[in-house]
Amino acid sequence: MTENQPTDTASSPHSGPAGLDTDQYMDARRAKLARLREAGVDPFPPHFHRTHTNAQAHADFEPLSSGATPVTVAGRIMLLRTMGKATFAELRDGTDRLQAYLRVNDLGEDAYRLFLDTVDLADTVGVTGTLFVTRTGERTVHATSWQMLSKALRPPPEKWHGLTDQEVRFRRRHLDLISNLDARDVLHKRAAIVREIRRFLDERGFIEVETPVLQAQHGGAAARPFRTHHNALDRDMALRIALELYLKRLLIGGIDRVYELGRVFRNEGISRKHNPEFTMLETYEAYADYEDVMRMVEDLIATVAQRVLGTLEITVRGQTVDLTPPWPRVSLRKAILDASGVDYALHPTLESLDAAVRASGLKVEPQKTRAQLIDQLLSTCVEPHIVNPVFLVDYPVDLSPFAKRKPGEDDVVERFEAFAAGVELGNAFTELNDPDDQYERFLEQARAMAAGDDEAHVVDLDFIEAMQHGMPPAGGLGIGIDRLCAFLLDQPNLREVIAFPTLRAES
User: Fold this and answer.
1) What is the CA radius of gyration of the chain?
2) Do 133 and 263 fall into the same domain?
3) Both 296 and 237 in a single domain?
4) Are residues 192 and 239 in the same domain?
5) Statement to judge: residues 248 and 130 lie in one domain
6) What is the pLDDT of residues 430-483, one digit of tens each?
């Protein structure tokens, strides 16, 4: 018996097409490609019709095998074992694996010899035959014919059963998904999470829309944009950093419940928690406030977890997290005070708050603004210690330029962030709908930008004009989908839940 194993691709390169390198193993595969063509076989045929996916063949195995009903299946070859005049091949499609049994007596000498002479690991082939169970209990298709569907010109990686270098996994995502079924499962579950989010919102009467990605003026978040130039208009534009301001225009236009699941782009660093382009969910509901949104968020996340994972108790980095609503509400001021001993409400300036932080002995990075320092206290002292979900509520106004003030408190707004297992799950507030108040806060942001805050909001007069037509009271929500998926699927790195994450250039 011989077993076709992955080959070591390290060898002296030769000149390849379009500047691509080749090697002795690719040369051998190209020789097999030529052999197929000499035999009158198209190695990349335009059509092939399966009767069953591999998963369907397994699901319908009993009636198909008992009736000796022919099936036609296909997949990438993950394993080959040849025993003289018979060969076992493991085929894997996007649904499951299925073994194929090919024998010279069934295929004929020429077809079987062509299989032996031309087929390698990673080739995609189609097989027609009947289903049976081998003596070892393996469900198998007994082939009566086979067809090459795609000849792989590059051999699989040496670590065929799972790439181990994380950087290589993300950079060669196609190879990772071929050999790493866990990585493929994560992407399937991410799709299910997004699908259930849409279902949840649709069931509650929200309308999904699409708003511009290219914007004359970015806004809606504290972030630096990517900039580009529109040649036909001879105009500089920015890729959006948030969905907010256009969705609010739709509220003004009379769409009372609206949401968008869209890509946003922020010109920031790359880390296990950040990717410069990511998927954002934003929702806006007229005549709701942040209390209404809190109830929706805990219901949304619990419902999605139950529908996709089948449980409200999940494991995140070794900790059991119970998503069962209702979640506790704790004021941001109290949470930071309890965790750090610093009461930011007693320090109205950056200098005063910075002195209090230094006097406490906390190891917190210095910041350019008071708002950034409060946020740093939250990130350093509070977030890492949260396990079960909690809403941190009632934020300082300078940290939330689009939120409505809490009645009776000039320096506090009705905002919350949801956290669990040290992860921010969502950010929301009762939306500011007073255009004059909004304009004043834009001016405050402009002053912060002049003072060196390059992530401050820009003044958007077009949005102010829209608000002057009357925006209903509303509650708004933002959830980073990549972060939510990483949380629900217990992935410590955002790049695991992004099909093609942004990477540094190869050295």
Assistant:
1) 29
2) no
3) yes
4) yes
5) no
6) 999 999 998 988 888 788 777 776 666 778 889 999 999 999 999 999 999 999
